[in-house]
Target: Diguanylate cyclase/phosphodiesterase
Amino acid sequence: SAKRAGRNEVKDFDVELKYALLEKIELVKDLRDAIANKEFHLVFQPIVNNVGEIMKFEALIRWQHPTRGLIPPDQFIGYAEESGQIVDIGEWVILEAKMALDKLQSVYGEHIQVSVNVSPIQLSNSQSDRTKLLYDLLTGVYSEGTSGKNGLVVEITENLFMNAEDGTQQHLLNFRKHGVQVALDDFGTGYSSLSYIMNYNIDYLKIDKSFVSKLDEQSPSGALCEGMISMAHSLGILVVAEGVETQEQAALLSKYGCDYLQGYYFSKPQRLEDIIATLRSASIPSTCD
Ligand code: C2E
Ligand code: MG
Ligand code: MG
Ligand code: MG
Model:
């Protein structure tokens, strides 16, 4: 009967909820040892300028779980934020990213930047003792800022940015004073207006891939992207489009004046060793001719 089916649905829902909760508890427990066990690694995705030259790389975390296999960040960063483990993980990410920055600059040139995703939890008041360490990591001894930039870019997502505590704005200002640039990630998915963003002194706006994936000459996404780009430019903010998968999307975004492009069309995120190996093999003159 309908009644019975209804009750079963509730029961299934209950079981699913319980299962999800158990899995979460399990993952949070496993996260505790993940750094010590060297289960994390970073992959790097190139960000090119409007003539296709690599200017930056975004560092993205991966978790190689001993039994579950490779876990993407969307499946554990949220838990790590809730449990506070994101603070340790975030510091590990910055240390790794800085080592990678040195290597990437030595092969691609000093202009190369590496961007890291930073959770607002890492900047929150409850973590004030650790915020000092975060500063030292971001702005610290490795940074030789000859160009006024130390090579690191901090990416903060729009949604979390909107809910951020008042202190966040001061942190971002301080980062910029120390040569760390700031990017607003996933722009367009939240509710912030560009006039609001103006108060925040950011360097880059990253247009969310949900807009880019719908791009073609006819779609309203085109007008939206074009509008975001020209408004950002009028505020002195540079624009990165993420999730560029086709030549058509790249061409349209360039036509709209987008400054930087990132996406599978150019390259998937890769491990540092693979990026450098590919570069080396491409630059070794062939002996088979
Ligand atoms: P995000 O910062 O917006 O990063 C862009 C995501 O889009 C990455 O997913 C990237 O692999 C993916 N992507 C790049 N190009 C394309 C494309 O052409 N098509 C499609 N469909 N996707 C593309 P990923 O690596 O799974 O990361 C997901 C999110 O997890 C990131 O979104 C970021 O918010 C978060 N995340 C990643 N690494 C870290 C980290 O070290 N710390 C923190 N706090 N968050 C991180
Ligand atoms: Mg990002
Ligand atoms: Mg993004
Ligand atoms: Mg995202």
